[in-house]
Fold this sequence. Notes:
Elements: E1 4-6, H1 8-15, H2 19-28, E2 33-35, E3 41-45, H3 64-134, H4 142-171
Antiparallel strand pairs: 1-3, 2-3
Amino acid sequence: MAIEALTYAELGARLAISSMAARSLAKRMRLPRSFSDDGKALVNVDLAQIRHSPRPSGRRETSSAALTARITAMQAEIARLEAMAARHRDDFERERERADRLMAELLQANAETTAAMAATARLEGLLHTRDRADGSVDGYGPAARRPGRLAADLVAADRRAMSERKRSHHSGLPDKSGRQG
């Protein structure tokens, strides 16, 4: 076939593509161009040498029913995610309250331990002072055994208090401090 001088619109019509696609094709193939008297670009082309099959356009035609179905599905997914987020928020709040209760118990136990250690130190100081007044300064005898017995008594009292606290905590009754278990 012979070489023809076609505008982009004419080339597009012959190849069943848009004029913009025809312009892009002419650039890609480096086809010689010239201008007509009215200022339009003309492409010199031999249509027999062009092996072009048009591709479907990138835009898809979707019906309003399909779009409505997608919107409905997305709204259902949003509702499901919002419900899940609300459940997670409830779980978070419950765990935060639990952590606050445990922290309060830990602080209370820490305060009780500190008080017990201070009482132990005072009692040991009193015993040392009393032992010096009695004249018993050796590492043997009844004065030397008193701090050990005192420490054992303190440990036993602490264990009784802890078991009583646990028992009242599990039974739901208030303990000696008035806290509900």
